[in-house]
Design goal:
This protein is mainly alpha-helical. It is 75% helix and 4% strand. A two-stranded antiparallel ribbon has the order 1-2. Helix 7 runs antiparallel to helix 8 and helix 9 packs antiparallel against helix 10. The chain starts with a strand and ends with a helix. The relative contact order is 0.08.
Length: 224
């Protein structure tokens, strides 16, 4: 992605998008968690996970391309670990969250809700920025903006609802994530016209339906 000049400072556009999106997510979480017991713990977890993910993504190039990185150390300043770095950074951030949760198991549901709110909010801002920076996104960019904007409002409004409501959110978000990419002409199909991302969200949607059916059966028997 191209670089953006901010006065005398030149910064990669993707890093700027990440920073603005992350800060927005922090602000939204801070507002929604205000006055709650778990607020401080969740905010610390959010910030630390972001730092871990960002640092690993930024500097994992030395893992994936060590020879050229050693030959040209300045590449650490200008390049990132790319998609592989994102996956590695996400995996280590999730590992960190898992370790934190092991000590605060009672806050699994509050953290899950906060994570969903942060995810859709940062994605909403990310797609706005990407759409402004990349003319090629066009209508598909607008669709992703509206999609994540809608779910950001939904999670904010339903934040205090039961976790089953959030199961419905994950289901409909996954369905939307399978449907929208069909409008992307640059989509790379892997199997039967579906991209890897579409397949992943399709599996998530099916898993949510199965879990909901398993949970719903005991309740149906009680009501019967």
């Amino acid at each position: 992605m191209s670089a953006i000049a901010l006065g005398p400072l030149v910064i990669r556009a993707d890093i700027l998008v990440f920073l603005i999106s992350a800060i927005t997510g922090f602000i939204v979480l801070k507002m929604r968690l205000r006055g709650r017991e778990e607020s401080g713990w969740i905010m610390d977890t959010y910030v630390n996970a972001l730092i871990i993910g960002f640092v690993v993504w930024k500097f994992s190039i030395i893992i994936f391309d060590p020879v050229r990185t050693i030959q040209n150390p300045l590449s650490l300043l200008y390049f990132t670990g790319g998609d592989k770095g994102i996956l590695l950074g996400t995996a280590l951030a999730l590992l960190y969250i898992g370790i934190r949760l092991n000590k605060k198991r009672s806050w699994v549901i509050p953290l899950a809700k906060a994570s969903l709110l942060a995810f859709v909010t940062t994605s909403f801002i990310k797609y706005i920025l990407l759409w402004l920076l990349d003319d090629a996104l066009g209508m598909i960019g607008v669709m992703y903006i509206l999609f994540h904007g809608f779910f950001s409002v939904w999670v904010w409004m339903k934040y205090d609802a039961s976790i089953r409501v959030f199961g419905s959110f994950i289901l409909w978000y996954s369905i939307g994530s399978v449907f929208i990419p069909f409008f992307d002409q640059d989509r790379y199909a892997v199997v039967a016209g579906f991209s890897a991302v579409q397949i992943a969200f399709g599996i998530i949607a099916i898993a949510v339906l199965i879990v909901d059916m398993i949970i719903g059966k005991p309740q149906q028997h009680k009501n019967g």
